[in-house]
Amino acid sequence: MTKLLVTGGAGFIGANFIHHVLEATTASVVNLDLLTYAGNPESLSGVDPGRHSLVQGDIADTRLVRELLEEHQPDAIVHFAAESHVDRSIDNPSAFIETNVLGTQALLDASLDYWKGGRSDFRFLHVSTDEVYGDLEPDEPAFRETNAYKPSSPYAASKAAADHLVRAWHRTWGLPAVITNCSNNYGPRQFPEKLIPLMLINALEGRELPVYGDGQQRRDWLFVTDHCRALMRVLEDGAPGRTYNVGGNAERTNLEIVHTLCDLLDQQVPGQRPRRELIRHVTDRPGHDRRYAIDASRIGDELGWAPQTELQSGLAATVAWYLDNRDWWQRIQDGSYRGQRLGTRGDSR
Q1: Secondary structure of 329-342 in HEC code, one letter for each residue
Q2: Is-catalytic flag, 130?
Q3: What is the pLDDT of residues 130-145, one digit of tens each?
Q4: DSSP 148
Q5: What's the rounded Cα separation, in Å, for the pair 151 and 94?
Q6: Could you tell me which CATH class the domain 3-190+221-249+291-309 is placed in?
Q7: C-alpha span between 218 and 212 (Å, rounded)
């Protein structure tokens, strides 16, 4: 593949994916991002401007998407763009329906016309989440691609709906689409509302570390670069109409993750007292899933992918990145990063 259209490429996983593509391949990337609060152009610092262009726009703007497809003739769309924070979906579900469901439908419509126009080699890769499956009992086997959907939150329900739309566009019209459902990602450039960067930043600043409920919610943790490698394998050789689960083989409770982060910071940036003392248990959020776990055997068996980053070393690398890039997250904290917005499509490079 020589050119990709990436949606949501200024977000956490999307930005890391673009860095990975530009470092590991010779492909170029057109990056369509609405640059809402979680879209940060500074996450793309250092990418080759000759191979990456950032266009501020909405995936629901079918006219814009059609223009970009016609102008750039990409070999594939990699669809990350989504509202993704569960807490925000509880406060405002409609934003998640508009972006994750209606936006995906508009993108599928434009992609279908583009593919029918003679691009037989085109691929549509829809990046989704393990949260569509609901949660697991402690002794249940990990999620497989055949598990029924049982979303618990408005966020998970909106992603489940988007997954169903992608499958329908493939089944009804033959659009060569592939879906991935990933476990909890972590690593550089993650917006500070999520668990790991929130705890890191709060701990560095001596503030309380709010842990929902008893902290025993279990997640499978996946280093973001491993996820990017998996997405490239699916793009290259994944079968149209197929779904691939992507996991890190690293189940831990939220409290275990917070303890590890505290200990890593205490080793690297010693404080006046152990940072574990900052942990405070707070009221759990409504409908909080207790356990997720991913069985990634299909992508391993069919495409030869496996996670390469052990959790402890991945967390250590994440801590090091946030220590080395304080300006990045401090500009998010003070809001100055939001000045990095593009005025018109003419400013898109």
Answers
A1: HHHHHCCHHHHCCC
A2: yes
A3: 999 999 999 999 999 9
A4: P
A5: 16
A6: alpha beta
A7: 12
Q: What is the pLDDT of residues 223-279, one digit of tens each?
A: 999 999 999 999 999 999 999 999 999 999 999 999 999 999 999 999 889 999 999
Sketch the domain layout of the chain as residue ranges.
Answer: 3-190+221-249+291-309
Rounded average pLDDT over 53-72: 97
- Residue pLDDT, tens place only, 79-124: 999 998 898 999 999 999 999 999 999 999 999 999 999 898 999 9
Catalytic residue among 114, 133, 155, 186: 155
The token duo for 276 is 């574990």
Is the four-CA dihedral 304, 310, 315, 320 of positive or negative sign? negative
Could you say which of 33, 58, 83, 130 is catalytic?
A: 130
Helix (H) or strand (E) holding 327: helix 326-333
Instruction: Write the single-letter amino acid at 117.
Output: G
Q: Where are the beta strands (DSSP E) in the chain?
A: 3-7, 28-33, 52-56, 76-79, 123-129, 177-182, 184-186, 209-212, 218-223, 243-246, 251-253, 279-282
Query: What six digits make up the tokens of 78?
Result: 């990699």
Alpha-carbon gap, residue 133 to 4, rounded angstroms: 29
Single out the catalytic residue among 33, 58, 131, 289. 131
Where do runs of H (alpha helix) occur along 56-153? 62-72, 86-91, 93-96, 104-116
Nearest by Cα to 195 from 113, 118, 270, 85? 85
- Catalytic status, residue 310: no
Q: Could you give the residue ranges of the DSSP H alpha helices within 174-253?
A: 195-204, 224-237
Which residue in this structure is represented by tokens 């191979």? 51
Catalytic residue status for 131 = yes
Q: Residue 335: pLDDT above 60?
A: yes
Residue 163 neighbours by CB under 8 Å, 6+ apart = 126, 128, 132, 149, 179, 181, 243
pLDDT number for residue 85: 84
